[in-house]
Design brief:
By secondary structure, the chain is of the alpha/beta class. Helix content is about 40%, strand content about 20%. The strands form three sheets. It has a six-stranded mixed sheet, sandwiched between helices. A four-stranded parallel sheet has the order 2-1-3-4, with helices on both faces. A four-stranded antiparallel sheet has the order 12-13-11-14, covered by helices on one side. Helix 2 runs parallel beside helix 5, helix 5 runs antiparallel to helix 6 and helix 6 packs antiparallel against helix 8.
Length: about 425
């Protein structure tokens, strides 16, 4: 079978298998399997077919029933399938048993996502995060590769007499994970230093979150003029990008793009990407981008919210951004479901529509971060007045004698600069 498969071309031929577990719905199971197909295509595979099975609970030995596994295996042999991918995480024992049944490589959803991430990571940090996640996934599965090996005798380069190859590999992987953790901790410290610098500037941090392929990078490009890579594929970008933007309220804001979320996101990835996801945890505001044209938008919103809870960011203020409105039918263009959220806007990042409303809403939501002051500045201090207008938002201004009276919102770190002119702190009385 393998020789014949090789003659069919270099593209990996895959068969997908999902399960509808008791308490779930056939629609959700189908949508998840369709998403798995998108993931496999993103990884460069050719989808030969797929299958679903209803289960009360996963089978301990083969996840799906033995009879169904044999049925799918026959289909795979007829289709010269190279790899079978399951839509759920498999145990090491299940993987070993299934490879005997299918007589080909068997992967789970986690391994597939990790493979895509490995392809997509560009920065040193991203590559380290992915490597650690992959090693954490491989570690409990080492016996799959080495059960056939006999015990080795001691010798040069061996720690002790009788150590097995399995033990050598396990030790090496654990050592590598330890080094990666140390390196990523250094990255974390570097980010902390950068963050302290931002805190001194008191520029609010807005983290852009959302389901993968919702259009986060396209939106960042549209708002800031950045040149972040975009592609109509899952996980087109992994590495975070931060850019500054100036709001109509005359406020500087930092926008940070983050890795896209997905349902059944592997815990290894959440753990490995904590250094990156910290930008979400410390953000002043989350901008949750939703693909409004996706039929499963509601489920995608819930999947993102689950990950936010997992990283302790579920209580952050959120601006819902319903993107890709240009793909909606005309009759659905009003997005009635915007009423379900306290703060929500509809945009088309691709066509740059609705961005003014988005920027305005950002200004409103971020306004409480600024100090709201009443000031009296001598008309002769023209430089101070110009400075205030440049760095703050002046709500009210009138002249009385030699003084200019102003009500303005300014970044807290600039308060000391105008301290001599402050008449009243309006923080307690602002809207």
């Amino acid at each position: 079978m393998k020789a014949l498969a090789e003659n069919l071309g270099d593209t990996e031929r895959v068969f997908l298998i999902g399960a509808e577990l008791q308490g779930g719905s056939s629609v959700d199971a189908r949508e998840s399997l369709d998403e798995l197909a998108e993931l496999a295509s993103t990884a460069g595979a050719e989808i030969i077919g797929d299958g679903l099975q209803k289960l009360a609970r996963p089978h301990a030995a083969t996840f799906i029933g033995k009879g169904k596994a044999a049925e799918f295996a026959e289909h795979c042999r007829n289709g010269y399938v190279d790899t079978v991918i399951f839509d759920d995480e498999l145990s090491p024992a299940q993987t070993r048993n299934l490879e005997r049944v299918f007589d080909c490589k068997v992967l789970d959803r986690t391994a597939l996502i990790l493979d895509i991430f490995a392809q997509r990571a560009q920065t040193r940090e991203g590559k380290m995060q992915i490597e650690m996640a992959q090693l954490q996934h491989i570690l409990p599965r080492l016996t799959r590769f080495w059960t056939h090996l006999s015990r080795q005798k001691g010798g040069i380069g061996m720690r002790g007499d009788g150590e097995t190859q399995l033990e050598v590999d396990r030790r090496r992987i654990l050592e590598r994970i330890s080094r990666l953790r140390k390196n990523l901790e250094e990255v974390k410290q570097h980010r902390t230093t950068q963050r302290r610098g931002r805190q001194r500037s008191q520029w609010p941090l807005v983290s852009i979150v959302g389901y993968t392929n919702a259009g986060k990078s396209t939106l960042l490009n549209a708002l800031t003029g950045a040149n972040v890579f975009t592609e109509d594929k899952l996980f087109a970008t992994l590495d975070p990008t931060t850019r500054r933007v100036r709001l109509p309220t005359n406020q500087n804001v930092l926008l940070s793009d983050t890795v896209g979320f997905i349902r059944k996101l592997p815990h290894q990835l959440v753990d490995s990407f904590k250094a990156t996801l910290e930008e979400v945890v410390v953000a002043d505001l989350l901008m949750h981008v939703v693909d409004a044209a996706n039929p499963g938008a509601a489920e995608q919103i819930e999947a993102v919210n689950e990950v936010l809870k997992e990283i302790d960011a579920g209580d952050k203020p959120v601006l819902m951004v319903f993107n890709k409105t240009d793909l909606l039918p005309a009759q659905n263009g009003n997005l009635n479901w915007l009423r379900d959220f306290d703060h929500a806007v509809a945009v088309s990042a691709k066509k740059k529509e609705g961005l003014e409303e988005l920027m305005s809403e950002l200004g409103i939501m971020l306004r409480p971060i600024r100090s709201y002051l009443q000031l009296a500045i001598p008309q002769g201090a023209g430089q101070a007045i110009a400075r205030l207008r440049a760095v703050g938002q002046v709500d009210e201004e009138y002249y009385e004698g030699d003084l200019v009276h102003l009500k303005a919102r300014i970044p807290p770190h600039l308060r000391e600069e105008f301290e001599r002119y402050i008449e009243k702190d309006l923080k307690k009385t602002q809207d």
